[in-house]
Amino acid sequence: MGMGKVWLIGAGPGDIGLFTIKGQEVLQKAEVVVYDSLVGQGVLSKIPASAKRIFVGKRASHHTMPQEEINQILLEEAEKGYRVVRLKGGDPFLFGRGGEELELLSQRGIPYEVVPGVTSPIAVPAYNGIPVTHRDFCSSLHIITGHKKAGQEYDIDFEALVRTKGTLVFLMGVSALGDIMEGLLKGGMDPDMPAAVLSQGTLSGQKRVVATVSTLKEEADRQGIQTPAIILVGKVCTLADEFAWYEKLPLFGYKVLLTRPKNLISRTAALLREKGAEVLELPAIRTVPLEDQSRLYQAFEQIKTYSWLVFTSPTGVEIFFQEMEKREKDIRSLGGIKIASIGEGTRKKLKEHGIYTDLMPEVYDGDSLGEALGKEVNPGEKVLIPRAEKGNENLAALLRKAGAVVEDVPTYQTVYEKSSLIDEKAEFESGNIGCAVFTSASTVKGFAEGTKGLDYTKVRAACIGKQTKAAADAYGMQTWMAEKATIESLIELVEKMKHME
């Protein structure tokens, strides 16, 4: 095995949208990922399933692993020849001890790269509408670690900081908030200087407490501040009211769990994030093409004999065309066949392959598709339905009733999977999640498989259609259904659900 390599990647302050393109590209190819508790859930859910994951969680005063040991792990995994990613919250070189992690590698001649991350002392104020520098107020920015060793005085020159007249940002100092403010006051800072604590910045729990250097401690205690948080001192704090933008988005402060088939790139997630929601995308199900596609291949051989080709999911379309390609079947062989699709998503997927749907029901479910197509089909006509192994039985029955000769061909199966990195059950039990969004009955089942023992009456479920809602109702969830079975309509439903809280 050749020599491995280590990438030190900054995961940013939490919002998955602030993870860099280079960070994502490298992470996708990682074979080993070493991560800690400051990495946002959105980034964690992008760790490839095939990678070996090593958690080296560090939270103030609860060290689960000493730094020396982390350095050692990086070295050992790289020496085995792996592509190793060390994933760190924020930026690896800002109080992230990234330099210490590279020392050992550099002594041993292990190649490495550093991928900078969006850093919280600038990004978190920005998400609160606070520019850390503003021409009218200051001409410098100072970033200080507020972390101090137990029982020791700060070795911070507070007087010098006060003299800079700049914006001050203290990281990891919330537990020492009182000491820091006291240090500034003793150093000669105006007691009325604006100061703020900004907690859980860029995420749905984002909150700010704005006061002055002399009152911030009691104000923060009164309002209760959750870590991670940063402390900001300077006149720029007063701009929050004028420039705040994130909290004005319609879904700000709302955390949504999106269960989805892993292989469908999620438009739903993008639209929810655009509206300001924090989206936890967890794969509840994975679709896998069947090993044995002989029945589909037989259908390809007599494709000219079918009058209708029926698709019941975007995945069904995807796999059908992949298999055609494997058999070197030309798309022109579908020339005389009419095409039906169950709904909007499936129709769009067909369009990507240059095919326009001839029939789509008003309501996007199997029964409605069966009824609509039943009216179009002539007795004796052959209908091909390539679809999931466990599909809606009723669809084929309705078509046979109309006299069609139906060939129901399973081409893929649904596998349930559970996130190994994020405890979904705990997220619901702690009330962090506003709602779960389900786009099919099988995603509801997948979610239930991954959260055994959860009290489902605590789950607020936004469902795309009737069958999905019925599946969620069966578990006793609080359910709502989108007006139309489209992603857009589902997003509108989530907005309504947020306002009901």
From TrEMBL:
Domain annotation Tetrapyrrole biosynthesis uroporphyrinogen III synthase: ranges: 267-492
Membrane-spanning parts: none
Enzyme class: transferase
EC nos: 2.1.1.107
Keywords from the named record: Methyltransferase, Porphyrin biosynthesis, S-adenosyl-L-methionine, Transferase
Superkingdom in the source lineage: Bacteria
Location of the Tetrapyrrole methylase domain: 5-216
InterPro entries named among the record's database cross-references: 4pyrrol_Mease (IPR000878), 4pyrrol_Methylase_sf (IPR035996), 4pyrrol_syn_uPrphyn_synt_sf (IPR036108), 4pyrrol_synth_uPrphyn_synth (IPR003754), 4pyrrole_Mease_sub1 (IPR014777), 4pyrrole_Mease_sub2 (IPR014776), CobA/CysG_C (IPR006366), Siro_Cobalamin_biosynth (IPR050161)
GO biological processes: methylation; siroheme biosynthetic process
Signal sequence segment: none
Sample GO molecular function, one term: uroporphyrin-III C-methyltransferase activity
Similarity annotation: Belongs to the precorrin methyltransferase family.
Record protein name field: uroporphyrinogen-III C-methyltransferase
